Amino acid sequence: MSYIMVDIESDGPIPGDFSMICFGAVLVTDELDITFYGKLKPISENFNPDALAVSGFSREETLSFDDPAKVMLEFEDWIKNNSKGRPVFISDNNGFDWMFICWYFHHFTGRNPFGYSSRRLSDLYCGLEKDTFAQWKHLRGTAHTHNPVDDARGNAEVLLYMKREMGLKIALK
């Protein structure tokens, strides 16, 4: 089973009405050196300027990004070529990140290589600490820049910390 840490940036709160602008993924291994980055052309004319600003891209820039179907097929190939066993989707905020990735996979490919479930990093940390308010973001080594590969890598560093330093029983392949 391979864990894949994912982070997305969007131009609004929900897929379909708004667009996923870019996303990054990191295969969780000791090296954290196997990554994927996709930039996707908007699928809707709707966008929230404040949400888009988080990504660092202008609306004009996003219009030149890649076709979403192409990017999702490339991501699916990356997952197949880099994971062993069933790939497990994990993110900082899987309620948000999963929603977009799952919707885009089903909408553009008719399937989701992650299946129907995901994991939330924060919940794992809170469970280990036995505190639903436990804070973990200070454990990131990579700065949180809103570049989704950087953000996924920083979150993967926390997952590795939880395994090495806190005794999280997790099999990373």
TrEMBL record:
Gene3D superfamilies: Ribonuclease H-like superfamily/Ribonuclease H (3.30.420.10). Keywords: Exonuclease, Hydrolase, Nuclease. The keyword Mitochondrion does not apply. One of its GO terms (molecular function) is exonuclease activity. InterPro entries: RNaseH-like_sf, RNaseH_sf. This is Exonuclease. It comes from Chryseobacterium pennipullorum.
